[in-house]
Design a protein that fits this description.
By secondary structure, the chain is mainly β. Helices cover 15% and strands 54% of the residues. The protein has three helices and twelve strands; from the N terminus they run ααββββαββββββββ. Strands 1, 2, 3, 4, 5, 6, 7, 8, 9, 10, 11 and 12 form a twelve-stranded mixed β-sheet that branches.
Length: 236
């Protein structure tokens, strides 16, 4: 993976010289199979890009992916568009440093089996290898279903902005969402994801109800089972 990123970094720099005179002669979609294979190898789950790949070389290197699919049925994510502004210097060193990421229309589906385990294989990425400075998300959705009784939890209209040191955290985000038709605002701060868990502090403030809450504790996954432990405070 490092050699691939280094090669892409050199390619980006070489293309800078030609970008002004022939920016449309480079068909970045030729890289689609390689990008899909390397991303799948890194994450340990299938990755597919159903739409186009576009690149912006000036004033700063950026990539755009349309209709991205990650994972398998029962634990999958679909994203309408991903836009990444990258650091060329990091690519030349075989590293990934995302200056800014924008996700439009991410949809996450999760399913829990009768034993309380998440269906599907969790990504095996070393999240600390991907540095990220800023992220913006709009039009997000999360669906959680249980196999025992078919119960369904659905959150939509998710939008937030955040900052992080790497994908492994620490994270700080602020945004809003809609749950069961009610709008809510939220803030979250996390520690670093290590050994299958991370510290989490989340504040939720429903805009149409006189009750707010805060969770301060740990979030983790143990043998496929989501784990929560900490303190929940309600005020209102």
């Amino acid at each position: 993976m490092g050699r691939l990123l280094t090669a892409i970094g050199f390619l980006v720099i070489v293309l800078f010289a030609a970008a002004a005179s022939a920016p449309f002669l480079v068909d970045w979609n030729q890289w689609k199979p390689t990008i899909e294979q390397e991303a799948a190898r890194l994450l340990g789950v299938p990755v597919a890009i159903d739409g186009r790949i576009e690149a912006q070389l000036v004033p700063s290197p950026a990539l755009s992916f349309e209709r991205l699919r990650i994972g398998v049925e029962g634990a999958e994510t679909h994203i309408d568009q991903v836009q990444l502004e990258l650091s060329v210097g990091a690519l030349l060193k075989g590293e990934v440093h995302v200056v800014e990421a924008r996700l439009s229309g991410p949809k996450l589906w999760l399913r829990v089996d009768a034993q309380g385990r998440l269906v599907g294989e969790a990504p095996r990425a070393d999240l600390s290898r991907v540095a990220i400075e800023r992220i913006e998300v709009e039009g997000g959705e999360v669906t959680l279903e249980t196999a025992t009784d078919g119960a369904r939890l659905f959150v939509d209209n998710i939008a937030f902005a955040g900052e992080a040191t790497s994908l492994a955290g620490p994270w700080r985000v602020e945004g809003g969402a809609r749950f069961e038709g009610a709008r809510l605002a939220f803030t979250a701060a996390t520690g670093r994801w290590e050994a299958g868990s991370m510290r989490v502090r989340v504040g939720v403030d429903p805009t149409e109800r006189p009750v707010a809450g805060e969770f301060d504790g740990a979030l983790g996954i143990d043998q496929g089972r989501p784990q929560f432990g900490g303190t929940l405070r309600l005020r209102g």
